[in-house]
Amino acid sequence: MSRERRRTWLVTGASRGLGRAVTEVVLEAGDTVVATARDPRSLADLAERFGDRVVPLPLDVTDRQAAFATVREAAGRTGGIDVLLNNAGYGLSGGVEEVSEQQARDQMEVNFFGALWMTQAVLPVMRGQGGGHVLQMSSIAGIATYPNIGLYHASKWALEGMSETLAREVAGFGIRVTLVEPGEFRTEWSAGSMVRATPMPEYDEVLAKRRHGMSGAYAHLQPGDPRKAGEALLKLVDAEDPPLRLLLGNNAADLAPRVYRERLAEWERWDALARTTDHER
To answer: Which residues have a Cβ under 8 Å from the Cβ of 24 and sit 6 or more positions away?
Structure first.
């Protein structure tokens, strides 16, 4: 699609991190952004800079009724929604045994169900206008796994499965779906945005390195540039044939193929046993 055609984006979690950077890049490119956050006052400076091309709205993505109401208001005020960026989310640090029930449920409520509710809310708008693009902010953690963030992985793997299915269901309506899979970007993700489980001493040795990595010690030292991520997403939505998955960052681009090669090799090693479980013909 030509850049002469100005789009309207709806971005969740637009107040900080990747969401904030993408919002600024998109606005600078001349598009309109409905920017949502739990506290829209954090977006006031964007309204001062970009005027009526930014529409700040309050939103808690875990509230399904609020998600539908926000999408209706956004479409009513702007005339439609061309791109939904489901960016709202956060990290949860803790071993699988360490994470509390509430922490686990909250992680899924925001990272998975929040994206699901927003996706359900925007699809009638996009079907009615004959197309659109849903960008799901996944992660390299939706492909590979690391100790100490198992529930975060679970939320992103759920998002990946839902979104790959969605892509097949909505293609006939002219709606594109892309899973954005960034590696490490220079944000607050491992610092102020991170929720941490209470450590169990049994895991002190096993998880020591990963706990330190999720302590905020390396926040704003990561290799990824959030603004460059925004520029990449502009190129993505301009593409005539956008991908289902887009890796962002060298570490993600290196790791994902290695993970899949390892999986293919393991399936091949165990292929003979896999083929022993069907009924005899």
So the answer is: 46, 227, 230
Tell if the pTM clears 0.90, that is, is over it: yes
Q: Does 2 reside within a domain?
A: no
127: which 2 tokens? 């079907």
Q: What is the DSSP letter of 28?
A: H
Residue 117's H or E segment, with its range, is: helix 114-129
Active site annotation includes 152:
yes
- pLDDT, position 1: 41
Question: Does residue 141 fall inside a structural domain?
Answer: yes
Q: Which of 139, 155, 156, 203 is catalytic?
A: 156
**Residue 249 predicted with pLDDT over 60:** yes
- Is residue 224, in this structure, part of any structural domain at all? yes
Q: Which domain holds residue 235?
A: 8-250
Amino acid in position 259: V
Q: Which of 15, 152, 163, 203 is catalytic?
A: 152
The domain total for the chain is 1
Catalytic residue among 15, 90, 93, 138: 138
CATH (domain of 154)? 3.40.50.720
Strand-pair partners of 57: 36
Q: Is 260 a catalytic residue?
A: no
Query: Mean pLDDT lowest for which of 33-47, 53-67, 98-112, 255-269?
Result: 33-47
| Amino acid 5: pLDDT | 65
**Is position 138 annotated as part of the catalytic site?**
yes
- The amino acid at residue 277 is T
Question: Using CA atoms, how far apart are residues 107 and 195, in angstroms rounded to an integer?
Answer: 9
**199: exposed, middle or buried (C-beta count within 10 Å: 0-12, 13-18, 19+)?**
middle
Yes or no: say if 59 and 36 are a contact pair by the CB < 8 Å rule. yes
